[in-house]
Amino acid sequence: MKDAKDPGTLRRPNWLNKKISISGCGKMDSMLKELGLNTVCREASCPNISECFGKGIATFLILGRICTRGCAFCGVKKGAPLSLDPDEVQRVTKAVIRLKLKHVVITSVTRDDLSDGGAGEFARLIRTLRDRSPETAIEVLVPDFQGDPDAVNTVLQARPDIFAHNVETVPRLYPLVRIGADFERSLKVLSLAKAASGIYVKSGIMAGLGETREEVLEVMDRLRLSGCDFLSIGQYLRPGKSNYPVQEYIEPNLFAEYEQEARSRGFSAVESAPYVRSSYAASRYLQQKK
User: Fold this and answer.
1) Number of domains into which the chain is organized
2) How much is the pLDDT for 1?
């Protein structure tokens, strides 16, 4: 059903009624401002922000706030990025220690302007966290580094606990939704990560972009063949009117079916529900693993 206030959009169903409360975000916002840090929670308009910030959890966004790609689903700013911040690694580390995080997720904008895509900064941050906060499990959610094996290996050699890269959607929709990305290239990145023994590999899919059930199941199969251990599936929610419109709101029972299908294919940990995001409740994946 169309929204009467905006005929170009679908009306949200009653199972997508999570409220964002800024009252629980003040302490986290103050710390982030003090340290000059970015989060994907804010930059990508995540609907779980008040829940996570209220628990003292954030997904840190490194390499700046401006992405060199033009993905139609994403709310992160796009354009020409600034130079790398040489102190960012130390400030993120301070935040992790201050928050006493047992599990941290580090992601970034895509930096096609950098020779290594920013892989060196990921590696430097992982090593610094290992030294300064050794009890913290480290998950990195990386861009595709344009498929460069050297860049991928730079991150892997720093030994994160989880190496994540999201395929986001089915191959058919890439020209509409993931401009500048390539499904096969993303699978290659995941395969390279799986070849690094002892590191869990994770990916994520958004539902409601116009994909079919059969296409989702095929993506699951391809991800397993690439060695993916963990999978997240959540409802795509349009971050702004300039972004790709929601094509369908997926009912909770289909998310439950997707979870069963993923587990039957051998994924060790799966989160599948409307408000699931790749970094949402990230520590649960390691708790679920077989």
Assistant:
1) 1
2) 47
Answer whether residue 195 is part of any domain: yes
Domain for residue 138, yes or no?
Answer: yes
- Coil vs helix vs strand at 66: strand
CATH of the domain at 69: 3.20.20.70
Residue 7, in any domain of the structure: no
Q: Is 179 inside any structural domain?
A: yes
263-289 tens-digit pLDDT: 999 999 999 999 999 999 999 999 987
Task: Return d(Cα 210, Cα 22) in angstroms, integer.
Answer: 32
148-181 burial code (b ≥16 CB/10 A, e <16): beebbbbbbebebbbbbbbbbbbbebbeebbeeb
Low-confidence ranges of the chain (pLDDT < 50): 1-7
